[in-house]
């Protein structure tokens, strides 16, 4: 072959139908979470999500026949990201965190993430006594049970100790409040100051 001839390139393998479907589902779920933050639960529509995800409405409805299917899948994806990520992916038998480290981990990996506001929108929707509410509650209850137990264990607590569980609930409540405050506070530094103060308080408890 002459020096100036083009080298043959290996063709990229064609994606399978399953891979294309998974890509579409992932795009739609991420677009749904973004839209929940931007416009809120009441304004979500399949048309809006198809536009944001850059997929055809037909492709979207093939994967998610109803709006509820789309919302439930988005919530499942978000919870799955939390469950498999830091700190919940740690093995409490091998890793321990101080209370201050746990507060930082919870804030950095969940509550400071813009998608947490999307989770709040869906958690409020879960209060409704309808098909969507029941589906979201099932996901939420399963996640909460796992989250609370592993959080207690990661800070060296006993899952059968009611006070240890209450302390976890207190941390989560404070962080949830700071996350909501951050969503409308014009000063981006406030959240960091509140986290630092809460770590100082929690460290003395």
* Class of secondary structure makeup: mainly alpha
How far the N terminus sits from the C terminus, by CA atoms, comes to 76 Å
The secondary-structure element order is: HHHHHHHHH
Radius of gyration: 21 Å
Quantity of strands, as a count: 0
Low-confidence stretches: none
Q: Report the principal-axis shape.
A: globular
**Roughly what percent helix?**
55-70%
Put simply, the count of helices is 9
Question: Proportion of β residues?
Answer: under 5%
Question: SSE layout and pairings?
Answer:
Elements: H1 17-39, H2 46-53, H3 57-63, H4 67-84, H5 99-111, H6 115-125, H7 131-154, H8 162-182, H9 190-204
Detailed description of the structure:
This protein is mainly α and 205 residues long. The chain has a domain at 67-204. The protein contains nine helices and no strands. It has helices at residues 17-39, 46-53, 57-63, 67-84, 99-111, 115-125, 131-154, 162-182, 190-204. Helix 1 packs across helix 4, helix 5 packs across helix 8 (162-182) and helix 7 (131-154) crosses helix 8 (162-182). The longest helix has 24 residues, at 131-154. The model has no long low-confidence stretch (mean pLDDT 90).
């Amino acid at each position: 072959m002459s020096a100036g001839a083009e080298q043959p390139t290996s063709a990229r393998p064609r994606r399978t139908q399953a891979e294309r479907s998974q890509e579409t589902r992932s795009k739609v779920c991420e677009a749904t979470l973004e839209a929940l933050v931007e416009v809120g639960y009441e304004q979500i529509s399949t048309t809006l999500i198809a536009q944001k995800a850059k997929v055809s409405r037909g492709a979207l409805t093939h994967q998610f026949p109803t709006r509820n299917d789309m919302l439930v899948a988005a919530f499942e994806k978000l919870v799955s990201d939390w469950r498999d990520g830091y700190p919940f992916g740690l093995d409490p038998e091998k890793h321990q965190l101080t209370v201050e480290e746990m507060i930082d981990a919870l804030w950095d990996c969940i509550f400071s993430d813009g998608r947490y506001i999307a989770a709040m929108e869906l958690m409020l929707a879960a209060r409704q006594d309808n098909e969507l509410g029941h589906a979201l509650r099932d996901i939420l209850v399963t996640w909460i049970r796992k989250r609370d137990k592993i959080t207690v264990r990661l800070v060296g607590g006993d899952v059968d100790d009611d006070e240890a569980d209450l302390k976890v609930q207190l941390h989560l409540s404070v962080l949830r409040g700071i996350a909501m405050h951050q969503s409308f506070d014009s000063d981006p530094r406030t959240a960091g100051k509140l986290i630092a103060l809460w770590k100082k308080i929690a460290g003395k408890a």
